[in-house]
Amino acid sequence: MLLNKEDIEGLENRYRGLFINALSGMKAAHLIGTCDGHEHSNLAIFTSVFHIGSHPPLLGMISRPHSVARHTLENILETKHYSINHVNESIYQQAHQTSARYDRSTSEFQAVGLSEQWIEDFPAPFVEQSRVQLGMELREHQHLAINNTDMIIGEIIHINIKDDIVSDDGYVAVGRAESVMVSSLDTYHSCDLLSRLSYAKPGAAAQLAEKADSSLKK
Amino acid sequence: MLLNKEDIEGLENRYRGLFINALSGMKAAHLIGTCDGHEHSNLAIFTSVFHIGSHPPLLGMISRPHSVARHTLENILETKHYSINHVNESIYQQAHQTSARYDRSTSEFQAVGLSEQWIEDFPAPFVEQSRVQLGMELREHQHLAINNTDMIIGEIIHINIKDDIVSDDGYVAVGRAESVMVSSLDTYHSCDLLSRLSYAKPGAAAQLAEKADSSLKK
After folding, report:
1. Cβ contacts (< 8 Å) between B120 and chain A: which residues?
2. Which residues of B touch A180 (CB under 8 A)?
3. pLDDT per residue over A113-123, tens digit each?
4. Which CATH number do you get for residue A120?
5. Is A12 a member of any domain?
6. Å between A197 CA and nearest CA of chain B
7. Range of the structural domain that residue A169 is part of
8. How many domains are contained in chain A?
9. B44: β partners
10. Within a domain: residue B61?
11. How far A125 CA lies from chain B's nearest CA (Å)?
12. What is the pTM of this model?
């Protein structure tokens, strides 16, 4: 299938949504937990969280103009904090269900059957069922005029992660946490290890390193 | 494993790199093809391509300050064009090898054994071995002062994708293209379909829709 700019512009709207959303490849699924100033919690699935840097530890995400996720954006701007929780195979159907257009007074936690987990001095709820929980502090908010979306950049200030998926050198076996991936808007996938490769140097062909799992704590 | 802000700041550098890079979850792997004004082609693996919107079709990516990927950034700013090519299971080792610090006069295509594919009126090379090839036009470039990285936003103006992975409604079976995912810096994964879910509505529990594969063209 070969499309030029004109062909792309001519795509039917629903087709376009499914098609273009698939082109960036698989996307990790995250549940974003927030709270407004009146203790109404909110939970929304995002597939646009991306790594910006590790020192300081920064993650970005995109909030779309029309979506229910606006509640998330408003809460983040109000409290300057949010949680990012990996979606795993046990909870991906509930996670998907958070994308329904609940009204503002409804907590998606309750509506979809996930549990709030709170820690001291952090004004946003985590998802108890998630195996990788990140507490985020807002660092930057940018409106992207090019298509009326918003980019949020946050710093990771709290990490709660299952010990048995972290290896001695810092590698995290995200696959072992059964974190799921989304292609397009609605199709969920699990991941299987292919291999861990060694640091690439000019002149040397990439060599298969030991399987990542072998370096994990038993 | 529970870390607060102080713990995170105290992480040893190499550990931090592997650890923090894993926290955003699995990342799709892409090869970015560029060319400078003197017909020197360049190819670099990126794991930070993210979806910004489908109308217009926009993808973002992050270029890091220290990396060899600066050649990619310089070429994009010079020619205003680049290609994004999905990395699949057959070529992920070559793709990883593009991250070696080759000098500027070396084409990574040649160095790692991938083939350039050119189309008319597009000033950047595609990767022939990739099953999802996107031709991009630069729309926005932002320096992110927060950590000295650069964000590139491009519009998809050319799509070349294998017919047999596109279903009638526009869904693309990225998993069938054997596109690979990276966790942390160096660990590659394949994806397996869990299920395609129906559009979420309040009041209805998420229901498993037919397996995505069943809606694919035979």
Report:
1. none
2. 194
3. 999 999 999 99
4. 2.30.110.10
5. no
6. 5
7. 24-215
8. 1
9. B32
10. yes
11. 16
12. 0.92
